[in-house]
Amino acid sequence: GEDVEQSLFLSVREGDSSVINCTYTDSSSTYLYWYKQEPGAGLQLLTYIFSNMDMKQDQRLTVLLNKKDKHPSLRIADTQTGDSAIYFCAETPGGSYIPTFGRGTSLIVHP
Amino acid sequence: NAGVTQTPKFQVLKTGQSMTLQCAQDMNHEYMSWYRQDPGMGLRLIHYSVGAGITDQGEVPNGYNVSRSTTEDFPLRLLSAAPSQTSVYFCASSPTSGRDYEQFFGPGTRLTVL
Predict the structure, then answer these.
(1) Does A106 touch chain B (CB under 8 A)?
(2) Checking DSSP bridges between strand A100-101 and strand A71-76, what pairing results, if any?
(3) Distance CA B62, CA B44 (A)
(4) In B8-101, at which residue ranges do the beta strands (DSSP E only) sit?
(5) Rounded distance, CA B38 to CA B86, Å?
(6) What is the pLDDT of residues A62-99, one digit of tens each?
């Protein structure tokens, strides 16, 4: 099975909060990343969290990590149409720099 | 810095043709990798390299070759193109030491095999 799992789609109304969930299985994960892919472009790092942290906030973005269940989530406050993109969760196991990516969640923001 | 560059941006091949997708980075990153992205499949790792002269297979290496003669360049060769290789290909690089291992992605090459 997949090492990193994400739901494929999320639809939200402009101005609402978006919560994109992820689940990973590797117990030795060191870093958890969130990447954003806009249409026709490559992936760009949005934020990351060290696996011994519970939360990290950066402007409209909040990363929460439920360490017990290995369940990171990305919250986008006041979601805008420009936030429409594919969001990838990724993790690197301890001692490795090779990431494992989820399949990506397509976020659709409608008026 | 230009970051990670890929050429060409678009390519159409006929079945059986060969070609090389180019990737270069100017950040002196040790780690470079190639992914393919297909709808609903996310990113799948094809090949990767942890330094000049060192390459290894990823999840889906069949039909592809790579080499790493310099730190900067990591070309991906399609030996005999097949329609199943129609995809978007991304090259990425990252450091292998430091605080985190952010992957820097190129803009992608969109390949169609007829």
Answers:
(1) no
(2) unpaired
(3) 12
(4) 10-13, 19-25, 31-38, 42-51, 54-57, 64-66, 76-78, 87-94
(5) 9
(6) 999 877 777 889 999 999 999 999 999 998 877 777 88
> Mean pLDDT over all residues of chain A?
89
| Nearest-angstrom CA–CA distance, B9 and B2 | 16
CA atoms of A67 and B106, how far apart (whole Å): 32
Percent of chain A surpassing pLDDT 90: 57
Q: Which residues of A touch B106 (CB under 8 A)?
A: 42
Interchain proximity A99–B31, CB inside 8 Å: no
Cα separation, B111 vs B114, whole angstroms: 10
Q: Residues 21-80, chain A: which have Cβ within 8 Å of B?
A: 31, 33, 35, 40-45, 48
User: For chain B, what is the mean pLDDT?
Assistant: 94
A104 to chain B nearest CA, in Å? Answer: 6
Spatial distance between the Cα atoms of A8 and A86, rounded to a whole number of angstroms? 9
Give the C-alpha separation, B100 to A75, whole Å.
21
The residue-averaged pLDDT of A47-62 equals: 87
Instruction: Mark yes or no for CB contact B95/A103 under 8 Å.
Output: no
Tell if the CB–CB gap between A101 and B42 is shorter than 8 Å: yes
Question: Which tokens go with B10?
Answer: 């678009």
